[in-house]
Amino acid sequence: MSTTALTRRATARRPAWRSSGALGLGIATLWLSIIVLLPLAAVVARGFDGGIDTFWHAITNRQAIAALRFTVLVSLLTALVNAVAGTLIAWVLVRDRFPGKRIVNALIDLPFALPTIVAGLTLLALYGDQGVVDIHIAFTQWAVLLAFLFVTLPFVVRAVQPVLIELDREMEQAAVSLGAGNWTVFRRIVLPNLVPAILSGAALAFARAVGEFGSVVLISGNIPLKTQVSSVYIFNQIESDSEISAAAVATVLLLVSVLVLIGIRGLGRWGARHERALAEDGR
Amino acid sequence: MIAATNITKRFGDYVALDDVSLEVPDGSLTALLGPSGSGKSTLLRIIGGLESPDEGSVQINGEEATTISPQRRGIGFVFQHYAAFKHMTVHDNVAFGLKIRKQPKARVKERVDELLGIVGLAGYAARYPSQLSGGQRQRMALARALAVEPRVLLLDEPFGALDAKVRAELREWLRRLHEEVHVTTLLVTHDQEEAMSIADHIAVMDHGKIEQVGAPRDLYDQPANSFVMSFLGPVSKLGTKLVRPHDIALSQHAIEGAAQAMVSRVVHLGFEVRVDLMLAEGQAVEVQLTRHEADELELSSGDIVWLRTAGAAALRA
Amino acid sequence: MTLTRRWRITLRAVALGYLALLLLAPVGVIFYRTFEHGVGAVWDSITTPAAVSAFWLTVEVAAIAVPLNTIFGIVMAMALARGRFRGKWLLNAAIDLPFAISPIVIGLALVLVFGVNGWFGGALADAGIKVIFSVPGIVLATIFVSLPFVVREVTPVLREVGDEQEQVAATLGANGWQTFWRITLPAIRWGIAYGVVLSVARAIGEFGAVSVVSGKIAGETQTLTLLVENRYGNYDVSGAYAAATLLALIALATLLAMTLIKPRREENE
Asked: pTM (2 decimals)?
């Protein structure tokens, strides 16, 4: 799709009072292409520079495949824990009342605001060898899970919170009036309405975890075949000038990211349809 | 005068306006009346320059305006949901168009004060739109549109978002304002009562076409077709004829050529009395009587009566 | 759904306990560790020439990247919220890419285009411009990772505000530029502010992508986050804690700004 075709179309369809945006759109698209799309294309191109065999060899190399498998597994576990803990936290923040709730609510975003390297260092300070408490999980696979859980905490909470706020309480009251107990109300009424939000929050957490680097680089110990995640593996390949190998594994991570994004868009559409159906029911 | 000639507008496959022509006489208050989806708002937006027509042309005071941007068309536009500039005070809202035209400050203030007086918001200049009621916001929007001394005023369902009481008040108020300011006004509404009570001309639209144009009374008494007739008021079907329920006379004696019917229900609505009847061939008919007429007839359920049309307006169904 | 008091308190305790162990305890410990030898030592540690240079480089990079992303973000948001054009869904999806991609992949991607052996490497070298292992590379990486924030914050606000105010402004004689400055921009200012705060936080805190492209030359291409890692790697643990605490304070300021802006941003809704 060329930029000129895009802008011409925009002008043709717009009424006169807002015809000015086309040039801006063209420049913004060009900007996005140069900064984001072109470099990503370069990764894929470089990954296949040595042909498909070299690519395949690079990603099935023992260390690479071990790192990929470990990363995906821990990321899935991260998504799962987040789905439960995030929903619980969102529920407490929306439905419960306690002093200091506003502060807790603001703190949820801390992992977004805190640099990942600082997050890694803080976890190391608490749970490392010279840590304050007697839990020494640094340089184990659990440490990676912990770091992932830290940086991905806000995703499910922030996805579920607004849905829970908007959720029609009368629906629950109606269920109760029909004799449903708390567990039934949660399972049959509340949860089905939250599922799209939980899934998309968990998917974002998964995507973030798969690519995470700063928070794990210190605490994982980077032990190949054991605690090394893919991003660290790629980093090591770059440092040792194995660009093709780095680009090949990066291409796999890129593919995972794109698939998750597509999945989330699908979920968004599903959620919207869900809501529309509810709205139409209400009429 | 506004003249829209042979306007066609499509949105994808949907034809919103199909070769529509309309003339709005100078100084008139004309209503575009029709159900939702009839194309009335689209026609208004095309006249205002907010949409461009696929075919046809728009002239304002004899000047070709089809390709002129809304900025230079000399129009005032008022939206159903006010479109108040939320971050500006009432004063700044009304002053907006004057400031764009780089009028001197003193002149702006004088004009804004004058307009706020006209629309009854004299003490509200320093308030923000969020501090006003819906009716006040809409009066502010009218003052804002009038500030730039538009050649024509275009109102898109201006009272549609207000509750019934405020709506009735604002209707009266707009009618008086129009007599004062006398700017050519085109108003879009789906409410026939609003159109009848406020406009001196009505254009009835349906399915992207104008069905009939005329004075309110003419449309009511001489509707061009069954759509116009039923959109402007209640209709009863008597045999093959469409008749207004108040144009049917009842008699307790058999009359040559009149239809025989049985009274099924009598409903007293204050001054008006509604009689539900069942014709001999099984068709239901509604008749409106004055209380006086009903008292004379002493009707009750089960009575047999004879019906005939008494008024002028009747259409073949 | 009305829970008994006992259930409510149990759920509350579990949720808050999880947050305390995962978030508060580690961050609290690092503050404690930083200041256990007194404020003076911390001050000395964050005013060394390397630290001061890292601080100013971080500020400089954010000061370039954030305004560019803000302008881009507003233009893109206007197009996504108001425009109708072919390929809009594709553009919409592409904007989220920086959120989903590993920072290391981002760093690598930039090296492959702007590095010495990259697609533009030859041309840039001929022009005498060094991007990778230099400040421009850090700026590019920072722009990349913080690109979506303003777009994603402003687009829903624009949709919510609608375009009727802009249409009225047009009928009152305002041209496109006047309408943008006087009507559109004031309506979306808090959405922009929120996006800018998020962008600043991300720009200051970016580590992975920057560490690939920077070359980590102390006093030249070392940002604050790189300084933390560098000190930790050189067994200067307390120095690393001090720099980390400085960054954590910036993060807390970010949270405060987010909390203050959020309600104003939602006024439009």
From this structure: 0.84
